[in-house]
């Protein structure tokens, strides 16, 4: 049985995990903190960790990226896209008027994960500008807190499955500001992922430039450009070693098994750059995105 570490039951990570491993025999170990998700796999308790790494609206989840780079050495084994559908959740009887209509004025606090909250800013500004906003470790945790505090007029932004798990009501569905709200997840661990086939392969690398080398980044990108290798993402993050020094996180739409990519990496290393391969892996696109 495959053992998988992830964020709490009822979170988008939970829904995304069940999508990727549909039909497979798997055991899910839920953790409140992303650090414990990573460490569960790093210490061998689980086979994989599921990590939300990027969102359509909010971009990269930098805390998770930094953990992947600085704290653990876990190869990326797969990536996939999953819709991040957020809902306003509470007890209906607490926040509706005599006509059973939602009364926003009765909601005094909204809780959620900061990334999920940011996906709903326009909705919150329009309907709940008076309500206090509180960030917690996950959307599932937000729903649990609302469940445990009846009568206070609290609401959570979270998933349908979290509302059902905690016996709460969905007051409004799909409160995210954009319909195309998707999250990219990474599956990390030491076991290759072979449960599902994919025609799309990607590779992720870290490139650290040599100091005082004018034009180094341009030369790095040229190593890909003249070989017509497509990059789907490039992002700079601090090395945490010295102010003003950065590494570049690069996603490449090509397998490391190809002829061109290893040659490009060799050229980059010849410039004096350090290159760390984070993984070469299958990529899965959600059917709605494909359509």
Account of the protein in words:
With 291 residues, the chain is α/β, with parallel strands linked by helices. It contains eleven helices and 15 strands. Helix 9 runs antiparallel to helix 10. The longest helix has 11 residues. The radius of gyration is 21 Å and the shape is elongated. The two termini are 33 Å apart. The mean pLDDT is 91.
Feature tags:
single chain; 291 residues; alpha/beta; ten-stranded mixed sheet; five-stranded mixed sheet; 15 strands
Care to give the gist of this entry?
This protein has 291 residues and is α/β, with parallel strands linked by helices. The protein has 11 helices and 15 strands.
Number-wise, the strands total 15
Structural class computed from helices and strand pairing: alpha/beta
Extract low-pLDDT stretches.
none
What general form does the structure show? elongated
- Mean pLDDT across all residues, rounded? 91
Tell me the Rg in angstroms.
Answer: 21 Å
How far the N terminus sits from the C terminus, by CA atoms, comes to 33 Å
Tell me the helix content: 25-40%
Largest sheet: 10 strands, mixed
The percentage of residues in β strands lies in: 25-35%
SSE string: EHEHEEHEEHEHHEHEHEEEHEEHEH
* Total number of helices: 11
């Amino acid at each position: 049985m495959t053992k998988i570490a992830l964020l709490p039951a009822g979170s988008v990570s939970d829904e995304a995990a069940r999508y990727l491993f549909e039909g497979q025999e798997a055991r899910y170990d839920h953790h409140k903190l992303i650090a414990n998700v990573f460490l569960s796999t790093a210490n061998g308790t689980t086979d994989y960790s599921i990590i939300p790494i990027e969102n359509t609206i909010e971009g990269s989840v930098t805390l998770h990226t930094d953990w992947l780079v600085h704290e653990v050495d876990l190869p990326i084994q797969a990536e996939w896209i999953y819709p991040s559908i957020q809902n306003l959740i509470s007890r209906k009887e607490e926040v509706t008027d005599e006509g059973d209509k939602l009364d926003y004025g009765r909601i005094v606090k909204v809780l959620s994960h900061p990334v999920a909250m940011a996906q709903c800013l326009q909705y919150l500004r329009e309907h709940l500008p008076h309500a206090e906003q509180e960030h917690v470790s996950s959307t599932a945790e937000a729903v649990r807190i609302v469940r445990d505090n009846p009568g206070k007029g609290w609401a959570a932004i979270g998933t349908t499955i979290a509302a059902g798990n905690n016996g709460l009501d969905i007051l409004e569905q799909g409160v995210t500001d954009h319909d195309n709200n998707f999250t990219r997840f990474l599956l990390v661990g030491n076991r290759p992922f072979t449960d599902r086939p994919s025609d799309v392969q990607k590779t992720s690398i870290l490139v650290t430039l040599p100091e005082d080398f004018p034009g180094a980044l341009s030369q790095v990108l040229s190593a890909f450009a003249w070989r017509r290798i497509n990059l789907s993402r490039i992002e700079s993050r601090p090395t945490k070693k010295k102010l003003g020094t950065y590494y570049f996180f690069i996603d490449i739409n090509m397998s490391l098994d190809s002829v061109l990519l290893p040659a490009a990496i060799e050229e980059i290393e010849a410039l004096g750059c350090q290159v760390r391969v984070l993984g070469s892996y299958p990529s899965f696109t959600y059917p709605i995105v494909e359509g």
